[in-house]
Amino acid sequence: MAKLTLYTNRFCPWAHRAHIALAELGLEFEEVTIELDKPREPWYLEINPRGLVPALKYNDEIIIESGIITQFLADAYPSHLEPTPTSPETALKRARINLFVETFTSKVAGILYGTIILANTAQEKAAKANATIAAIKSDIAPLLQDAAPFFGGSKELTLAEVNAASFVLRIYTLGKEEYGLLPAFLLPELRKIEVWQKWVDAVLAKESVTAIFDEKANAQRWQKKLAQHQAQQKL
Ligand SMILES: N[C@@H](CCC(=O)N[C@@H](CS)C(=O)NCC(=O)O)C(=O)O
User: Fold this and answer.
1) Of 77, 93, 85, which is closest to residue 4 (Cα–Cα)?
2) Which position among 42, 44, 70, 169 has the lowest Cβ density within 10 Å, counted as fewest Cβ atoms?
3) Whose CA is nearest to atom 14 of ligand 1?
4) Which Pfam families match (predicted)?
């Protein structure tokens, strides 16, 4: 049995991808929390010279970058997450998952996370939220047409959800009006996108997705970051 160590921080949605993959695969691992509010210590920079979480240690090998880590886990431990590419048909399924992950990461994850919350004006915030809604309608929803309830007609979570769920969870929790972090119209508008919302409901019902997430702590962390950002803007 390989020894797995995950260098992580539970606030980080990229690191959260690895937690979801490990939970879905039922793998035991050691969790090492890397404090993100202070500079990385030299020992961690030896593990990941980029200084980012997550990083995965597999026996004595280090793997970095969340998408590479989840792909490695799915390949090393064949499962329901993704078929092994043994035929053009299975290769095609993997290609479709890759397209979804690439599209979700470039059009939704990177844009929404942080940049909307810390936008400098209400107009900028609204424009970014509208751009996200438009991208979900035009680029993401069409890829979810045959979700049943998960990607590509799968009854179980796939690598597509593994790489998207942590962001979906943050949109739907931090987007609640009471936290004042995201425009109030964002969630009601997203809920109107039927095929997307059906998929979101299935994703957010999974224990493997929600297990390590502390909604209140995440909201408070962002509220603090936002207050600091606004104070700096006034200087
Ligand atoms: N592309 C990286 C992004 C990882 C990332 O941005 N992690 C953040 C935390 S969410 C980080 O480690 N930031 C270092 C810092 O804040 O100093 C991945 O997918 O693994």
Assistant:
1) 77
2) 42
3) 52
4) GST_N
Q: Which amino acid is at 81?
A: L
Comparing 78-87, 105-114, 136-145, 190-199, the range with the smallest average pLDDT is 105-114
Q: Is the sign of the CA dihedral 165, 105, 225, 233 positive or negative?
A: negative
Per-residue pLDDT band at 113 (split at 50, 70, 90): low
Q: Say how far apart CA 182 and CA 132 lie, in whole Å.
A: 12
Q: Which CATH class is domain 4-76?
A: alpha beta
Look at ligand 1, atom 11, and give the residue with the nearest C-alpha: 52
Alpha-carbon torsion (36, 7, 163, 149), positive or negative = negative
* For residue 112, pLDDT beyond 70: no
CA atoms within 13 A of residue 1's CA, in its CB half-sphere: 6
Among 8, 10, 14, 47, say which to mutate for ligand 1: greatest number of ligand atoms within 8 Å of CB: 14
Pocket test for ligand 1, best of 12, 33, 163, 169 (most atoms within 8 A of CB): 12
CATH 3.40.30.10 boundaries in the chain: 4-76
Strand partners, 32: 7
For CATH 1.20.1050, the residue range(s) in the chain are 88-234
Q: State the CATH class of domain 88-234.
A: mainly alpha
- Ligand 1: residues with CB < 6 A are 12, 14, 36, 51-54, 65-67
Q: What is the mean pLDDT of the chain?
A: 95
What confidence tens digit (pLDDT) does each residue in 185-215 have?
999 999 999 999 999 999 999 999 999 999 9
